[in-house]
Every structure is written in structure tokens, then in C-alpha cells.
Amino acid sequence: ATLLRRGFTAGRALIPVAHAASRSVRPAAALSLRGMSSVKISAAMVKELRDKTGSPMMDCKRALEDAAGDQAKALEWLRKKGIATAAKKESRRSADGLVCALLDASGKRGSVVEVNSETDFVARNPIFQSFVRDVCALHLSQGNVSIPLADFKALQLEKGPQTTGKISVEDAVKEMVATVGENCQMRTAAGLEVSGAGGVFRYMHTGM
């Protein structure tokens, strides 16, 4: 006798009860349920996702399990988790981080950005450092040294810490929170431009 429980048949595979009467139950016809993917998640798959995103290994494994091994879906899973994680951590104090300053080729315009983290450990993270440089380069490319911070956060980066396509600065900062596990904030984005004689120079006391 077939045992019915919560709308599913018991056996070697789970399928909706509505279909059980019309066909035999076969493993190949199993309904793929959340958290019950038959795809084997290998260490190499986890490492590949880890290398792409910098996310913790366990998060990468969970994302791949939830996405049945699909890398693109796993990236989306991590992106959504990053937004949720950022919301939980946004009240935490972030008084460390990095300042990056860049000049254009003419030496007449420069940009400086500050992205905060909770500890200097994150500030030394190559992924975080590369991200801050990308943010500063984006500001410099605008040709508008007085763009308001809120407007700047809405601009699109070519990629984020976990996103391979375009993403706003604000959302990219949220992805960084998920990547490094600390509260990160886009604190400052400013610039300076001169005309005529003279130029803009930069000095970083402890440059990265």
C-alpha cells in the first residue's frame, strides 16, 4: 500500500500525489525539492565559486546546493544573502577601512574616496583593496568632481565583489559586506580640479 503524507508519496523518489496514480514512481522522475538536489557538489565547484566571489566556503557550498550546482544561480543566491547580511550589520561601527586617491592623465583632476570597514584586517584584504580602487576610478571617470555622494552611489560599476555584470556602487558595497563579513560603508567620494597653470597632486602617507 502506498503511504501518503503531506501531499507526497513515500518511496525511492518524491513526486506530487496527483501524478502518482497516472504513472509509476521512478527515481528519474523525482521532484527536485529545495535542499534535496541530487547534484553532487564537489570541492572544485565550491572553490570555483569561492574564487569568483571571495565568499566564505560554507556559504558557497550552501549556494551551490540550493542552486543544484548552477554557478549563475549560486551567484544570485549569494547576492541576495549579501543584501540581507548588509541590512543586519549596518548598525555596527565601521571606523577602519581605506582611502584611495587617483589622478587623471592630465594631472588637472583628482578623486578621493573612503570606504570603511570594521577592522584593518579587512582593509588589508586584496579583494577589498581592489574594490576601493574601482570605486575611485569610477568617480574620476565622471569628470564631475562635485557629484553628490547619494548620486555617486547610484552609478554603475562594471562588476561587483560577487557580480560579474554591472552593479550600482551602493549594491556593490552590500556585496562586500557578505564577502568580508563586516559592515562596510561608502563614506566619502570627492574630487578636485584645476584649470590653467598648476595641477593636482596626491600624497598618501601609508599608501596601499
UniProtKB/TrEMBL annotation:
<dbReference type="InterPro" id="IPR018101">
    <property type="entry name" value="Transl_elong_Ts_CS"/>
</dbReference>
<comment type="similarity">
    <text>Belongs to the EF-Ts family.</text>
</comment>
<keyword id="KW-0251">Elongation factor</keyword>
<dbReference type="Pfam" id="PF00889">
    <property type="entry name" value="EF_TS"/>
</dbReference>
<protein>
    <recommendedName>
        <fullName>Elongation factor Ts</fullName>
    </recommendedName>
</protein>
<dbReference type="GO" id="GO:0003746">
    <property type="term" value="F:translation elongation factor activity"/>
</dbReference>
<dbReference type="InterPro" id="IPR001816">
    <property type="entry name" value="Transl_elong_EFTs/EF1B"/>
</dbReference>
<dbReference type="InterPro" id="IPR009060">
    <property type="entry name" value="UBA-like_sf"/>
</dbReference>
<dbReference type="InterPro" id="IPR014039">
    <property type="entry name" value="Transl_elong_EFTs/EF1B_dimer"/>
</dbReference>
<comment type="function">
    <text>Associates with the EF-Tu.GDP complex and induces the exchange of GDP to GTP. It remains bound to the aminoacyl-tRNA.EF-Tu.GTP complex up to the GTP hydrolysis stage on the ribosome.</text>
</comment>
<dbReference type="InterPro" id="IPR036402">
    <property type="entry name" value="EF-Ts_dimer_sf"/>
</dbReference>
<feature type="domain" description="Translation elongation factor EFTs/EF1B dimerisation">
    <location>
        <begin position="111"/>
        <end position="206"/>
    </location>
</feature>
<keyword id="KW-0648">Protein biosynthesis</keyword>
